[in-house]
Amino acid sequence: MNKNIILLGLAMGLHTAYAQETISPAPAQRKPVYLTHATIHVGNGQVIENGTIAFSQGKITAVGNNVAAAGDATIIDLKGQHVYPGIIAPETSLGLVEFESVRATIDLREVGEINSSVRSIIAYNADSKVINTLRSNGILLAQVTPQGGIVSGASSVVQLDAWNWEDAAYKTDNALHFFMPRLLPVGSGSGPATNDRTKAALEQIEKVRTFFREANAWLKEGKHSATNLKFESMRRLFNKEQKLFIHCDLVKEMLLAIDFAKEFNIEVAIVGGTDAWLIADILQKNNIPVVLTQPHSLPLMQDDDVDQPYKTAALLQKAGVLYCLSNEGFWQQRNLGFEAGTAATYGLSKEQALSAVTLNAAKILGIDNIAGSLETGKDANIAVSNGDMLDMKSSVITHAFIQGREINLDNKQKQLNAKYEQKYGLK
């Protein structure tokens, strides 16, 4: 009886396993590839009509109108399709969460308020079923970010076609994350209670400032009797090998973020930045980039224009502030390109909107030397679309390459769609 139950369980497990899509990472690029007769959107504002892009051993070797194939190469005639840099998704919990309602699939946060030594990369699940749904929309890189506490730890950039987290790592520990407590406007809410919350928030911010000061002093000392992991983890930040991403939205919070950059002589980026348009000149003057999150949302304040989140990117562009777009979360990231398309409707040009999810993101994440645009010498992270990749209606991704490897664009959702089209005779 027990043996039969075990065999039945194994059979059900195998059935479940085979019911899932099996998509293995692509092998390394073996010979040169030429994508021809395409409209090439470089990512830096340049558009090349009827162009060719060539790449070999994972690197782009030529881009332009007069690129001729040579030797034993794979030639793909795109016949007027559009070629783009792969979209980069900053600020995501991709690979750290699989099902929001199942606790065992969530590895997003650690206990405690200050967790500077936490590294999100070692918790990244390269087998997440969500990853494939992003790749189908041209999203090929992501910044995996931890949460929890005030200082949540270090994020890393991953490429989305990997066997494991070591294989996925594209730039490890690129940023430390500080989730600044909300400083509510004075007079809002319930009066004294609001002031109490603001006071508590300021105390937490000061606690982080004290931690930074102590870590800086500890690192300047010659020898220590014991290693302090939290202090030691701050070394890369103070050496400017890492940025501090400060999550905040209100003007007074962003001004405090600028104070952090000045006091500790570190590189700071603002994440959220809902009210960044109000102090765009100050941000530009202090060279503070902004990761605009949730561009498809209602405004933060009741007296803001209802379309303010849509047009904030254009206001930052006009002021000369470096910015990019992010959708936060994990499965929502698949719509990031379409949100850039919305920004193009509210003041950006199409190429500026493309840069907001490619080259600008690469600059802020510190990977623009190898990613973010289709330029010679950079990694061949390429998405090919039948139509406009930023338009939900016309975008159909037909090919995608990560570091020159052509990846499988199948996913569970596509398979379910095909299954029920067949079941109900819809094909």
Note down, in words, how this protein is organized.
The chain folds into 2 domains: 20-85 and 372-427, Urease, subunit C, domain 1 (Roll), CATH 2.30.40.10; 87-371, Metal-dependent hydrolases (TIM Barrel, Alpha-Beta Barrel). It has 427 residues and is an alpha/beta fold. Strand 12 (290-293), helix 9 (308-319) and strand 13 (323-326) form a beta-alpha-beta unit. Helix content is 31%, strand content 22%. The protein has 13 helices and 16 strands. It starts with a helix and ends with a helix. Helix 9 (308-319) packs across helix 10 (336-345) and helix 10 runs antiparallel to helix 11.
Helix-strand blueprint:
Layout: H1 2-19, E1 33-41, E2 47-56, E3 59-64, E4 74-77, E5 82-85, E6 87-92, H2 129-135, E7 139-144, E8 151-159, H3 165-168, E9 169-179, H4 192-220, H5 229-232, H6 235-238, E10 243-248, H7 251-264, E11 268-272, H8 280-285, E12 290-293, H9 308-319, E13 323-326, H10 336-345, H11 350-356, H12 359-365, E14 382-385, E15 397-402, E16 405-406, H13 412-423
Parallel strand pairs: 1-4, 1-5, 6-7, 9-10, 10-11, 11-12, 12-13
Antiparallel strand pairs: 1-2, 2-3, 5-14, 7-8, 8-9, 14-15, 15-16
Helix pairs in contact: 9-10, 10-11
